[in-house]
């Protein structure tokens, strides 16, 4: 199932998106998309709606250096254990919403990432049981003020600006995350192209590692790390992150 959230002619709604590309229907979900969703009976042509970020997370956890080639381009080796950090949920935006570069940064980078969306409250989840707590997967951009990340020595400011976590367009359930292509384009030029099979820590291992630290709640998002090819974005450009089998998350870049 493709789960999304839209601004419809009748208000904001969680929806299931069905049908062929260009002809999709958005069926309104009652209450919330977790568990087995029920439907209100209302639906819209997707083209009548504006697509929003598919979920409102209580928290976003992100993995640093989960691809060896990205660790190398950052000037080091990947750590043996996953390094985790957090982005505030106020950094989430949906497809087509502008990424706003703050005037305090001289270098704002894209980081295309494959994202896990948690489906139920959980703690201390063994890797082999991660599938039981995952709602589905989506596409993310871990936007980073690279100069501030390096200057501060920790990452809260550089990763935390409003608009620095584009998500979407959909959460795809019943999805095999083990080997799909992830690609980032800047103004149509391919900048990152890799596969989730090259992640150093798998989806299951990541859920186990993070849930050993903190309770995860429905809707929480885990960004699984970016592959090699990161780079800066400037105002007027457009960045698009695609994950095979899920879709493309595209956002314009503006200066504040
Ligand atoms: Mg990242």
TrEMBL record:
Signal peptide per UniProt: none
Residue span(s) of domain Rv2993c-like N-terminal: 1-54
Gene Ontology BP, a term: carboxylic acid metabolic process
Keyword hit for Hydrolase: yes
Domain Fumarylacetoacetase-like C-terminal residue range list: 59-254
UniProt KW keywords: Hydrolase, Metal-binding
Single annotated GO MF: acetylpyruvate hydrolase activity
Keyword Lipid biosynthesis assigned: no
PANTHER family in alphabetical order: ACYLPYRUVASE (PTHR11820), ACYLPYRUVASE FAHD1, MITOCHONDRIAL (PTHR11820:SF7)
Protein name: Fumarylacetoacetate hydrolase family protein
Species this protein is from: Gordonia sihwensis NBRC 108236
């Amino acid at each position: 199932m493709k789960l999304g959230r839209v601004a419809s002619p009748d208000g904001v709604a969680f929806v299931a998106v069905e049908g062929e590309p260009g002809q999709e229907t958005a069926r309104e979900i009652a209450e919330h998309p977790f568990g087995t969703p029920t439907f209100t009976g209302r639906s819209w042509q997707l083209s009548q709606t504006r697509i929003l970020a598919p979920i409102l997370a209580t928290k976003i956890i992100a993995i640093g250096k989960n691809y060896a080639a990205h660790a190398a381009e950052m000037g080091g080796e990947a750590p043996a254990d996953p390094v985790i950090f957090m982005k505030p949920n106020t950094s989430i935006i949906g497809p087509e919403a502008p990424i706003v570069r703050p005037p305090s940064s001289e270098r704002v980078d894209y980081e295309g990432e494959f994202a896990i969306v948690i489906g139920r409250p959980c703690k201390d989840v063994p890797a082999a049981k991660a599938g039981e707590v995952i709602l589905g997967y989506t596409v993310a951009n871990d936007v980073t003020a690279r100069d501030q990340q390096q200057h501060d020595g920790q990452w809260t400011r550089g990763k935390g600006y409003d608009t620095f976590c584009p998500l979407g367009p959909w959460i795809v359930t019943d999805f095999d995350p083990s080997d799909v292509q992830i690609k980032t384009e800047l103004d149509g030029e391919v900048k990152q192209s890799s596969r989730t099979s090259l992640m150093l820590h798998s989806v299951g291992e990541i859920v186990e590692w993070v849930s050993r630290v903190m309770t995860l709640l429905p809707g929480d998002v885990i960004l699984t790390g970016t592959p090699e090819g990161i780079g800066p974005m400037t105002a007027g450009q457009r960045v698009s992150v695609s994950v095979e089998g899920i879709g493309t998350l595209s956002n314009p870049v503006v200066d504040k």
